[in-house]
Amino acid sequence: MAQNGVTALRYVGLAVPEFEAERRFMGGAWGLKETEAGSDLAWLSAEGSSEPHVLRLRRSEQRRLDVIAFAAADEASVDAMAQRLGAAGVKLISEPRALDAPGGGYGFRFFDLDGRPIEVSANVVERAARQLDRGESIPATLSHVVLHTPDVKKAVDFYVQHLGFRVSDWLGEFMCFLRCNSIHHCLAFLPGPPTLNHAAFEMRDVDEMMRGVGRLLRQDVVLGWGPGRHVAGNNAFSYFLSPSGAVVEYTAEVERVDDATWRATTYAPGPDITDQWGTGSIDGRGPQKLGHAAIDPGLWQAPPI
Ligand SMILES: [Fe+2]
Q1: Would you say 18 and 59 are in contact if contact means Cβ atoms under 8 Å apart?
Q2: I need a surface site. Which of 34, 35, 164, 277 has the fewest CB within 10 A?
Q3: Residue boundaries of the structural domains of the chain
Q4: How much distance in Å is there from the Cα of 238 to the middle of ligand 1?
Q5: For residues 289 and 203, what is the distance between their CA atoms, to the nearest angstrom?
Q6: Does domain 8-122 have CATH number 3.10.180.10?
Q7: What is the pLDDT of residues 63-114, one digit of tens each?
């Protein structure tokens, strides 16, 4: 396991042609809060989170994943990681430096094994999180991202070796869940052409998740899969399609893991494992309703910002 690994997931950056519609949706019905925006870039926070932002949207004709950002413990850890990645032949996009995003901080970017831009930062200025009201049913924080990769084992090895992730569980050799703190997973891999599968936002419990689901259904947002509860991570799930076609999830009650005692399980993939309540796929819903993975056109290209 790598020393000085990452410590948390910070934010996801998406480039979308439907910039205004995506801003309105994510900052409106979805329940994030736009904290800063220009004509082509918008930053959204989760009100219950002290991260300055959990989502960055950029106006672009090309739909792509711009960046996935992780936290490091401190600047020395950022420097050590950048040096270690460079020495291992990983292509850096930028050396460690002061960041000019809201919240600032000190960080660098690199391309992961499939060419996804990844950012690692420390000393970001936290925002004042708000104590959500009971039943408010908006995301408390960003939970996890799931990515497609041509070789899941190789991707897992990369993130374990270079960023200090630990394997929490496997579904056969098909899907792997990775953690970088006590949360069961903030990252997972599925087979397929390199692209984002979905980004998940955490509600505080199933009751609030269901209230959020109801709020979206009343606004005719497409519920693709759910509500249900996965076995790996034991989290409740509900997957929706955003106006840009991105798959976004409300999740709740993701398992917390004790590093000292946790042993990874390999579950045999099957309907009872992906949906232990058996409620997720009624009325034609299911993963197939969320679309098919197509290669991200932004691989190996640094986003302009
Ligand atoms: Fe998920």
Answers
A1: no
A2: 277
A3: 8-122, 141-290
A4: 9
A5: 23
A6: yes
A7: 999 999 999 999 999 999 999 999 999 999 999 999 999 999 999 999 999 9
C-alpha 288 – ligand 1 centre gap (Å)? 15
CA–centroid distance, residue 99 to ligand 1 (Å): 29
| 3 state SS of 281 | coil
pLDDT reported for residue 3 = 58
Please give the distance, rounded to the nearest whole angstrom, from the Cα atom of residue 174 to the centre of ligand 1: 15
Cα-to-centroid distance, 13 and ligand 1 (Å): 17
Q: What is the pLDDT of residues 254-267, one digit of tens each?
A: 999 999 999 999 99
Flag whether the pTM goes above 0.90. yes
Separation of CA 235 and ligand 1 centre (Å): 8
How many A from CA of 138 to the centre of ligand 1? 17
Q: How far apart are CA 3 and CA 6, in angstroms?
A: 9
User: Is-same-fold flag (8-122; 141-290)?
Assistant: yes
CA–centroid distance, 58 to ligand 1, in Å, is 23
Cβ-contact 9, 187 below 8 angstroms: yes
| Interval between CA 11 and ligand 1 midpoint (Å) | 15
Q: Say which CATH superfamily domain 141-290 falls into.
A: 2,3-Dihydroxybiphenyl 1,2-Dioxygenase, domain 1 (3.10.180.10)
